[in-house]
Each structure stands twice: as C-alpha cells, then as structure tokens.
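User: Can you write out an input/output pair for a complex, sequences first and structure second?

Assistant: Here is one pair. Inputs:
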Amino acid sequence: MSKNQANILQALNPADYFTLAMDEEIRHETGVGSLCGMALELDALPEITVLEDKIKALTQNFPIILTSLQQQGNRFHWCQRDTIDSIFFQYHATSTLDIEQIIANLMNQVQARETIMPLSFHLIHSDTRCVLLFRWMHPLCDAVSINLILQYLATDDKNQREKFHVPTPEALVTRQLNKFSLWKKIQLFLKAKRYITTLDQQQSIIHAAKKSPKKLRALHYQLSVEQSHKINQFAKTQTGITGSSLYYIGCFMRALEKMNPQQSGEAYCVPYAFNLRKQKALTPLLGNHVGVLFAQASRQLIANRKQLFTHLKQQNKTVIRQQLDYAFLPIMWAARFLSLKKHGENLRLSYTHKTERSSFWFSQVNLTARTSESLCNRKITGIRHFCQISSPPAIALLSCEYQQQLTLNYNFIEPLFEPAWIEKLHHYMLDELLTEDSP
Amino acid sequence: MKPQLREFIFEELIFVADPQTFGNDEDLLEAGLDSMGIMRLIMFIEDQFKVTLPDTEIDPDNVKTFNRLEAWILHHKS
C-alpha cells in the first residue's frame, strides 16, 4: 500500500461527488468553493471549555471532520493530515456590524480544497451579541448533518451521544442503489435522462445580471409567530400535507416573476434535494444522503396561483409515482466517474439550450423537531443559514422554521444581485406567502 | 394490512428506537412522517393494496396512525 493510500480515511459517496462538482464550479467563479454556514444566535457567551470539550468529543468520534479532501488518481478521498489545525476559533467584535462582517468574510474565505478544514466552529461575540457559526464544505455533509451535529453538541449525556455513533456500513445513496438490480438501475438511469431532456425543452428563466461574480451576500428575515403560523396554514391549503416545500417554491417563482416579467426564458426550473435518512434518525451523521427532485413551471402557469400549485403538486406526485426521484441516484452513481468539470456541466447546463438549468436553488431546513433550544446552557434565539451558489443562478432561498418562527434566508452573489433588489423581492415573497386563497 | 404498513414505514420512512412498541394509535406525524414520506407511503399503498386514494382525502386525519391508515384504505377497497 502506498503512503497516499494509507492516508485515506474514507471515499466520497455519489451524493458527495454531486456537491464536490458544485464546489469545483464555484471555485472557478469566485475561488471560494461550496461553503455552507449555520449561524446560531446565543443569548450569552457559552462556557468556552465546555464547548471546546464537546467539539473535541465530536472530532474524536468522527475523525473525518479533521481530514483533508484530496484527489488521488481520478477519485477524491478524505485523507489524514500531517498536522491537524484547530477547528474552533474566537473573535471579539466591536459592534453588530462587525459581527456581520466577520461572518461575511468567513463565508467568502478563499482557501484551497486540500487545506480547508471540512468543518469549523467560529464563536463571534461583542458586548451585546454572541453568534456561533458552523461552517462546512458541502462534500463533507448535508444540512441534515449539521442539524445532527448541533443536536450532538447540545446533548450533555454521554450515553445519549452514543446513539449518534452507530456505524452505517454504506452511504444511503449506495444502499438505495443496491436495492435495484443492474437492469433496474439502467432503466432508472434512462428514465431520469429522458426526464431531464423533457425539462430542458423549456429554457429556464434566470434573473442574475450578466456580471462577473464577486462575493456571497445574505439577507435574512425572521417572520413573526403569527405570520409563520398563517404561512403554514396556507401551505397546507395550497399544496396539502404532501408538499410544503412546493408552496415556498411556487411563491418564490411568482415573486421573481413580479420583479422582472420581461426576463427572457420560458419556465422556472428549480432543483431541490430530499433526504434519504429515515426521519428522526440520528445516523448517518456525516456525508450527503440526498436525492434530487425538480420543480418546473412555465410562465403561463405562474400567472395563476391556483393553477401553479395544482401543477406543482401534480408534478411532484407524478415524479414519485414514476420513481423519478430514485431515478437520479443511478445518474449520480455514474457521474462520479466523470471529471468534475464534465460533472458540473451536466448538473448545470440544459441539454437543449446549453444555458443554466436552475432558476434558483431552494432548501427547506426545518429544525423544529430536531434541534435543542439551548447549547452549553445558552439559549439559541435564532438560526440563519448561508450557502455559496454557482453563478448563475446566483440566488438561493433557504427557509427555516425554528421555535415556530420562519426565517427566510436569501443568499445571493454580488453584483449579479444587489441588496436593494433582494429587499424588494422579499416584499413580493411575503405578499405571496401570506395570500389567502380559497381551498 | 397493518404489518405491511408497519414494515414499510419503519424500514423506509421513520426511525423509532423500538418499532415493536409503537402502538397502532400512536401519532405517525409526531414520530416524523413528513410530506415526502406521506407521498411515498401513498404510492406504496396504491401499489401494494391495489387501491386508489383520492388526493382530496390526503389529510392528517387519514394518515395520522396505523389504525386510521388502515380504515382509510379499507374504505376505498370495499
């Protein structure tokens, strides 16, 4: 065994490759890569030694957190480092503005893929505020993982923490793929390709300005309990209990359309991930365990709210009925043998038009059932999400519900989008979300 | 019918520490059955029990527990 092979701790799974390809795309554009962040607002500074001990326990049990992502041959692996850098950092800020600037700098930090720590914790505090930022590179884990890591850190009882350690023999994408025979895999692969070809017949509407991407910005809006309750109710009326994500996606399509109805393109096309873990499972803690779905709606459909939601609901149902959700797994499996460049192209570009397929990125990160309300005896008073995005589409909406309050996180790349534009967009979005329709 | 439903839900959709002790009247939505899970469950039911469940009846009341799920399916099977 060569020295390089001896250093390998774990290979990437097909869904990790999917996010790695996007890491490569973003690196080409801004140099940053696929960084994600979750910022917890704490009511006071936590006891540092307690927090550090918990982070230490986490890394001892999940050593991949301390590795380096390296290419060996054509493949990528999590490899041991010669020296291990710290993953916990503290910053003293002079003002709220300063706190936001530190977060922005961290989310835009350019660092080589091989040297960046896959996960790091940044405690930023001023005299009046305290924020703990979890920052991770997407190939390490998905958004559910970060919820699990938060839950892990918030669990004081050692025996309870053991429940997160149960080893999983294989990635869930692989486990699901193993359930299919070779012929079934081929059948699904072709089915997914045909489906994408159908989606690609309509040119996607992209609102990003044609400018060179510079840096990620984010605007966050925490809604009141009353507004959040209303939105949940309306989502149930419009898209039923089987598709609350579709309500946000539909509303966001309409809000974007109001911003610029003259924008070229025929339809909005939105990829969104679904979790392959069983709900409430505490494992696997790390890795990406997701499949992909698409929501697509033409301009004509978007003009009519009721028709739009009926269409999105029906589309989702058809996709699941035809097993198209699982059909993308063989594609993911096969795509990991491509170069990252080719993989990225396939993910992003329409086969028909050779332009960007995604109108925007969307993720619903609900924390209600999973997350503790405190960490190291400090109350978590708010949660915000960040994610780097490829340009175009250069805009992502991450919705999150925590303690009965929704937060809409708009992540965007400047100068393709500007804060004033996003602010106006949020007003339209709020109008859409709070519109009461007849059932 | 319930054993098949239980097997599918605990095998594919939600994690509970001890599935055997999960009662047929316990709340599946509380246990983590989410929107995507409900869609998968309906597809499984339609395929497994050769029944069509109308969209208009996809309601928390019908999917909340194993007993309610079974009653809903039986209603459309007869």
